[in-house]
Amino acid sequence: MSNNAERFPGGGPSQGKREYPVERVVGRGFDDEDYEIAREFFRNRFGRQDFVKDLERDKTEEEEKIIAWVNDETNALLELYGVRPLDIPSRNVHVIPEEQWPKREDFTDSAAFYDFGTQAIFYRDNVWRSLFAYRLFHEQLHIKSHQAAQYVEEGGKKKFEEYRSGLTLTSAKRENFSAQFRMVNEAVIEALAVQFWEERIATDERFRAEMEKVKRLRAVLREESAALKTANKLSDEEFEAAAGEICAALQGDGEPELVRFAYSAERAALSMLISKLAEHDRASGAATGEIFGLFVKSVLSGHMVELGRLIDRTFGAGTFKRLGAVSSEKHTKGELLAFVKGLRSQEKNGV
After folding, report:
1. Residues 6+ apart with CB under 8 A from 297
2. Is 32 exposed, middle or buried (0-12, 13-18, 19+ CB in 10 A)?
3. Which residues contact 188 (CB under 8 A, 6 or more apart)?
4. What average pLDDT does this structure show over 233-259?
């Protein structure tokens, strides 16, 4: 047995659907017996989802149908990129009422999230079914993208921690090593979720009433455009882009809270990066859609070599590694944007 990364047998044969998300275990000193333990551990973790039954509410029939629909849609996307599909059962989606949502700091700003440790999706309840579908699509892509665990021993105890989730890379063996590529990973997944909202949710008859509300919300914003543009120092183009990102409004104690698509700065950085790559590669006929597809394929499959080579070939050796670092938890969205803005192709640098 190798001392390095090993293919995790839990994925099963190369054809057909995966049984559960985690496909690899990385670590030293891992033997055949450990693999059997890991396989059973991740199968059970994915299958046993009764640990929050005191917090979650029962899902409605409509929600069950939305979960099945989003599962089919995300699987179709995986297959489009040559990635084996994975079914996410309803049991792995936990709808938590607002009053039950944990008050911890790491939960406060979350509307939904996928948790690697429990192999579950948690959703903060609200009345918008379109919002449920859109956010569920985002989180299902997280759980269905390439997943790898790291095997570590601390104090004589063996445990599994997250190593890869899409592009995101975390290593418990490196001192002060935060999750590399996290912001880029979120940008790719959210860009796909926004596309799903625009192409599928917004045109679906079951969400028509909510889409009418969204149109009215955007119209009201545009009526107030002069004051809002002045107050927020936005150009006409920037204001229109911001207004077009409104997708719901949640009623709170005071004024309604406007809900926008998430990770706007991260998506802006990704869009800028793709445009620069396409401009440099124009001679080969590469379009922005093709390059975005390469990012998507890297997230879903975990294969980063082709993407890394493209970025390093365009901007110089080591750029891909620096992108991973600047899009980690140690850096801000502003730093990521500044990094991408500062990128110059090797030709423009006179290389």
Report:
1. 81, 82, 83, 303, 306
2. exposed
3. 166, 167, 270, 292, 295, 296, 299
4. 82
Place of tokens 């440099």: 280
- Whether 6 has a pLDDT exceeding 50, the answer reads no
pLDDT band at 29 (very low <50, low <70, confident <90, very high): low
Residues making up the chain, counted from first to last:
351
User: What pLDDT is recorded for position 181?
Assistant: 96
In the sheet where 120-124 sits, what is the strand order? 93-96, 120-124, 112-115
* DSSP letters for 36-101: HHHHHHHHHHHH---TTTTT--PPPHHHHHHHHHHHHHHHHHHHHTT---B---GGGEEEE-GGGS
Cα 317–Cα 301–Cα 23 angle in degrees, nearest 5: 115
Cα 265 from chain centroid? 14
For 218-224, which contacts have Cβ atoms below 8 Å and span 24 or more sequence positions?
Answer: 218/243, 218/244, 218/246, 221/246
Q: Residue 260: CB partners within 8 Å, gap ≥ 6?
A: 242, 245, 246, 247
The overall average pLDDT reported for the chain is 87
Domain 58-144, architecture per CATH: 2-Layer Sandwich (3.30)
Q: Are 87 and 19 in contact (CB under 8 A)?
A: no
Query: Is 120 in contact with 97 (CB distance < 8 Å)?
Result: no
Strand 6-7 relative to strand 22-26, pairing: antiparallel
pLDDT tens figures, 172-192: 655 455 799 999 999 999 999
Domain parsing of the chain, residue ranges: 1-48+148-177, 58-144, 200-260, 264-341
Phi then psi for 26, rounded to 5 degrees? Answer: -115, 135
pLDDT digits (tens, 9 = 90+) for 304-322: 999 999 999 999 999 999 9
